[in-house]
Amino acid sequence: MTNRTKATYAIITAIFICILLYLFLPKNDKTFINTLGIIGCILSLVGLVLAYIQILSIKQIAEDTKMKITENITLNNNILMLSDLARKAEIVGEIQGYLRDDKIEMCILRMRDLKVILNTIKNQERYRSLVAKKEFRTIFENFNLDLTNFQTHKFTAKGKIDKAIISTHLEDLSTLFLSVEVQLKNQNHDS
Predict the structure, then answer these.
(1) Are 99 and 174 contained in the same domain?
(2) Are 184 and 91 in contact (CB under 8 A)?
(3) Residue 22 sits in which domain range?
(4) If residue 113 lies in a helix (H) or strand (E), which one and from where to where?
(5) Mean pLDDT over all residues of the chain?
(6) Residues 53 and 128 in one domain
(7) Each residue's pLDDT tens digit, 27-69
(8) Angle at which helices 163-190 and 133-156 pack, to 10 degrees?
């Protein structure tokens, strides 16, 4: 039984009780003032029931609104995650461009930026569940080794940097970002 049905029954019952009270009043108490009092009582009871219905209606609207807000926040967060992943893949592309142009200092700067982002991804639950832990760990370790090799090469000028291996590691990282992005998109379409 819905709240409106309950309220209707309550109003009808209240009116019925008030009419019975009026009918069973002694004849000398059935004055105009008493009639107005009974009508006022009926209207007061109807007003209380209507107020109760409004309170229940507002409560339902608030719950529905809260649910919609939660859905929209989740959708917004997923859209932001997708745009973040696309941006991260672009950073990898920038690093590869600097590597091709032998701009080691710029590679190091962008790789440091990306390392901060990777650490953030590594510690966020929403990303962790989408990335196989072993795959992420391997790519993350390769990226850290490449960054260390760049810094060692810059400060000691010893050794040779194998651009092909570094480029492969960066490509793996970009592929990881794009695969997580695809998984998120599929997850959004499934829900």
Answers:
(1) yes
(2) no
(3) 3-62
(4) helix 104-123
(5) 78
(6) no
(7) 887 788 877 887 888 788 778 878 888 888 899 899 999 999 8
(8) 150
Q: What single-letter DSSP state applies at residue 129?
A: T
Q: Tell me: do 115 and 172 sit in the same domain.
A: yes
Confidence (pLDDT) at 66 = 92
120: which 2 tokens?
Answer: 């953030």
**First CA to last CA across the chain, in angstroms?**
32
Residue stretches of the chain with pLDDT short of 50: none
CA gap 118, 161 in Å, rounded: 22
What's the confidence (pLDDT) of residue 140?
83
- Residue 126: exposure state from Cβ atoms within 10 A (0-12, 13-18, ≥19): exposed
pTM for the structure as a whole? 0.52
Give the position of tokens 């009780």: 17
Token representation of residue 28: 């000398």
Helix-strand-coil split of the chain, %, nearest 5: 90, 0, 10
